[in-house]
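Fold this complex.
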Amino acid sequence: MKRGTQVAAFALLLALLVVLPRFVSSYKLLTYTRFLILALMAQGWNFIGGYTGYAAFGNVAYFGIGAYTTGLLMIGKWHVPFFPALAAGALLSALVAILLGLPILRLKGHYFAIATLGVAEALSQVADTWDSVTDGSTGIDLPLKTEGEFFYYTALALVIGGLALTWAFSRSKLGNGCVAIREDQDAARMLGINTTFFKVIAYALSAVFAALAGGLTAYQNIHVTPGDFFRIDYTLQMIIATIIGGAGTVLGPVLGAAVYQLLSTYVWSKFLELHPTVLGLIIVLFIVFLPRGLMTVLARKRQRGERPFRMSDLLANVRAHRVT
Amino acid sequence: MSALPSPVRRIPGDSILEARGITKRFGGLAAVDGIDLTIRRGEILGVIGPNGAGKTTFVNCMTGLDKPTAGTIVFNGQDITKTPSYRIGRLGMARTFQVVKPLRQLTVRENVATGAMFGARGKGRSAAQARHEADEVLERVGLAEMRGRTATELTILDLKRLELAKALAMDPQLLFLDEVMAGLNQSEIEKAMELILSINRSGVTLFVIEHVMKAIMGISDRLVVLHYGRKIAEGNPKDIVESPAVIEAYLGERYAHRTQAAGDVNAPIEPGTSLKAPPAPAGDTLLEVKGLASGYGEVQILRDVSLEVKDREVVALIGANGAGKTTLLWTISQLLKPMGGSVRFAGRDITAARPEEVVGAGVVHVPQGRRLFAGLTVKENLMQGVYLRRDAERIEQDFERVFSLLPRLKERAGQLAGRLSGGEQQMCAIGRGLMSRPRLLLIDELSLGLAPLVVDSLLDLITEINREGTTVLLVEQDVQVALEHAHRGYVLETGRIVQTGSAAELLDDPRIRQAYLGL
Amino acid sequence: MGGAELGQIFVNALLLSGILALVALGFSLVWGIMNIVNLAHGAFIVLGAYITFFLHELLGVDPFLSIPIAMLALFTLGWGIQLGLINQVIRAPLLATFLLTFGLELLIVNLINYFFKADLRSVTTAYSGTGFTLGPVRVPYIRLGALAVSLVLVAGLAWYLKMTRVGRAIRATGMDLDAARLTGVKVATIYAATFAIGAGMAGAAGSLLSMIVPFDPTLGGTYTQRAFAICVLGGLGNVANVVIGAAIFAFVDVFVGARLPSLSRAVTFGILVLLLILRPQGIAGKTV
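Structure:
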C-alpha cells in the first residue's frame, strides 16, 4: 500500500470509530471501550517493553495507583472532577515510576521482570492493608456515571493521543536512544546515551498510560478493590496485546489489542467455562507461529512487495526458531 | 610490492590525555597495574602486548566502562576519573569494541546516526541532521552502499567498518581502536591502514591496539608495550621491536625476523622460516568436498567449493575474512546445512548427516574462539570430548596421550576452563578434540588473539599430532605460519577455491606473497 | 518472641526448605541450561499432587510410594512438552518462551479445574498428624519424611549432573550449545531430558505437598514465584547455591508469615527487590 492509500485507510478507520456508538448496542459498546482501554495500556507498555526492551511485568501496579488516586480524589473532601483527578493519578504514577525505576532499572532481563512483579504484588497488599485510606478489601465506590459514550470517547481520544505520542517518540532522539539501549546497552552508553535517564523516562511513560487506563476503568466500574485492580491478568493482557501486534512499532499495540479483544470476546461467548484454557491455547499457538508479532510480518512483507500471509510463512517461522 | 603510504608524521602537540597510576583490580587480580601514559594530541599511539596484558581493560578504564581502582585520568585538562561513560563520549572520546557491538536490528545508517545524535556534537543536531551526518561518515568508511541493510546481514568485515563508523560519527578528538584488523587479509589491512591514517590527518588522535605487527609498525608514531598489566616499553617502533625484553615477552625470535624482513621483496626467506613439514605422504582421499554451497539464512557465503584432504596430510586453508573459511568448517561438521554440493568422508556421503553422526564418523571440529565449557574443569572438558565413545580402556589411554602431549593441561586438570590463559584454552580445546579420537581434525583460526610466540608452539604441536597419525585441515589467517606447517594448501576467495598447490609452491608464489604475506 | 515460638519457626522453616529446594532445583535447571523461565512449573507441581491424591483415593497407594510414579508421569509429560512445544520456539525472543509457558500454565491449571473442580483436597493417611516433640517444639513425621525425600532427590540430582555422562552433557550444553554439538551432543534430546527432569522434580514436590497442605488447582502458582525468588537469591550456578537460597527463603518466608501475615508477600518481595538492587548476582554470586 502506498503512503497515500495508507493515510486514507487510516482516516476512514478513524471516522468509523468516531461514529461507532450510534450503530451498536450499549453492551457491544462496552466491549469496544474495553478494547480501547487495553490498547491504551499496551501503548504504554510498548515504551518500556517494546522500544527499550525492558520487559516490565508489574505495570498493573500503576493501573491500580491510577484507579485509587482518581477514585479517592473524586470521593474525598475536595470532590475533584474526573479529568483533573485522572491527570493527578497519571502524575502520581509517573512519580512512583521514577522513584522505583531509578534503582530497579539497573537490573536486567528476568531480574528486572521479577522485581517489577514484586512491586505489583507488594502494592496490592499495601492497598489491602492500608484500611484507613483505601478501605482495604472492601474497596471504594466512585460516583455513578452510566453514559457509555463518555467512556468510549475518552478512551478513543486517549488512544489517538497515544498514537501521536508514540509516533513522535519513535522519530525523536529519545526514541532512538531507547532503541539503542534495547539493542546493546553497553554500546549505547559508549555512544553517549545517558541510559539511566532514558530508561526511567520510558518507564514513567508506561506508568502514565497504565494509570490513565486505571482511572478510566475505575470510573466506569464504579467499585474499586485491590483484588480487582491489581490482578496480574492486566499486565499479561497488555504484554500479549503488544507482542501480538508487534512490540516497538507505532500501530502494534492497538492492532494487538484489537486482536486480543476479538479473541477474548469470541472465546468467552463460546467456551465460558474453559475460557482461560482456550485463551491459553491461543496464546501458545500465536507464540509458536508468530513470535515477533503481526506488525513485523506485515512490514517485512511490504518491504519485499509480497502478498501478506501465507501458511508457508508461519511454518518457516517455526523452523527458524526450532532447535534440533 | 604494493605501495604503503608513508605516514605523514605529525609533530605531536600537547598532551590530550594523561593517565597516572592507573590500576584496575578484579578480586585479587590486577588486570592493570600502575600504568602512567601520556597521549599526545595528533599522534597515533600503537599498543601491543600478549593476550591478557590489560590492553582492553586499560581502554575500558579510560572510556569509563570500568572505574579504575586507583589513578587519575585527565582529558584536555579536565579530570574525568569519575565521569560516567556516556558523558565521556560527549566530551570527545570514542572507542570501538574488540568484539563488535552493532545495534543489531537497526540499519547501518541508523547505527551510525545514533553515534551522531549523542556524540560530541550531538546536542546541536536533530535526529534528521544526525542521519545526514551518518551518510557522510558512511562514505568515508566505504559502507555507503550498505546503508539500508540491517546489521544482522553484514559480514564480519563490514561489521568492523560499522563499528568504526559509529565511533567516528561521534566526532571524537581521541579515538580508541581495539584490534580492528583481526582477520583481515593483506589488501584489507592496507585499506584499513589508509583509513586510519586519513582519520588521523583530519585531526583525530588515535590509540590503536593491534596484534597485526605489520599494520601497527606502519602507522604508529610511538609504540607502547603492555605485559601483565604493566608498561614494559615505550618509544620509537623500530627500537621497541628489537628490544630483547619485548621479543622475549611477546614476539618470539622468528616473528621478529619476519617483521624486519617485511617490506623488502627480495628478502631471502630467513633460516627458521622455511617450510618445516616433512614431504607429503601418499594416502587415500579422506575428505572430499565437491561444489559445496552454504551460508547463513539469506546470505550465501560459499558458492562452489571443491577440495580434498588425503589421509595423514596437513592441509592449510587460507583466505581473507569473509571468504568463507569458517563457514566451510561449520558446514562440514554440519552445524550449518549445505545449500548444494556434496561432502564425502572415508567413502561415506555425509552431506545430509547430523552433527553427531559427523563426530561419530571421526571428523572433529575445534572451533574458532576456543569455545570451551567455561564452567567445567579442564578434565571435564576433555571428558565431554569422549561423549560419544564407550570404549573405557582406550579412553584412559587417550587421556594419558593428551596429557603427555599437553603437560600444561595435566597441571591444570582441576581448574575451571574459563580461568585459563588464551594459549592454555586453545590447548584445552585441541585436547578436547583429540579425545574424540578424530581421523580428521578441523582447526579454525588457532592463532586469533594469541601472541606470536604462543602460536608457533601450538602449531608445532599440530605437526606432532599429525605425525602420530591424525589428518588435519587447518584454517588460518596467519598465512606464513600455516603454510610452514602444512603439506598442501588451498586459497579461498569470496566463496570459491581460486588456487591450490603444495605449501612450498604457495609460499613461493608471488601473488600469494604479495596478497597475504606483504613480501 | 518466646523461645518456643522461635524454635517452632526454626523447625517449620527447616522442614519447608526441603520442599522449596526441590521445587527451585527443577526450575533452576531449566532456567540455567535452557534459559527458559518455565511459568508452567507450578502446573507440574499441581499435577504431581493430584496424581498422588488419586492413587491414594482410588487404589490405596501410600503417598510416599506414589512419588516415583508421579515423577515418572511428569517426566514423560515434560519430555513431550519440550519436544513438541517449547522446542519450536526456543530460539525466539526471550519473552516468547515466558509467554508460552504462561499460556501452558493457564491451559493446564484450567483443565484441572474443569475436571476436578476447585475443591480443597488433602492426602490423609493413618500416620498424618503424628509426630514427636523436641522440648516445646513439635516435629510432624510427614514433614520430616518429606525433608528426607527432598534431600535424597536433591543429592541424587547433584550426583547425576556431576558424575554421569548425560549429566555432564547437560551442563556442557548449558554453557555452549554449538561446542556441545561438536562433541556429538544431540541438543534436542538433552533439552528434553533437562526439561523432563525439571518436571519430574516438580511432580515429586507436588506429591509431597499433597500430604502436607490442603491443595486446589491454584497450588502451583505461589511455588513458581518462590522458585523464581530462590533462584535469584541463590544464583543459578549449581545445586548447592539453590539449596542455600531455598533455606534462606524458607526462613524469611516462615518468619515473616508468623509475624506479619497480612503483609507477608509484600515484605518478602520487598526484601527480594532490595537484595536484587544491592547484589544483582544473588547471594552466592553466580550471575544468571
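Chain B touches chain A at residues 63, 65, 84-87, 89-90, 94-95, 97, 101-106, 110, 113-115, 117-120, 122, 126-127, 130, 166, 170, 354 (CB under 8 Å).
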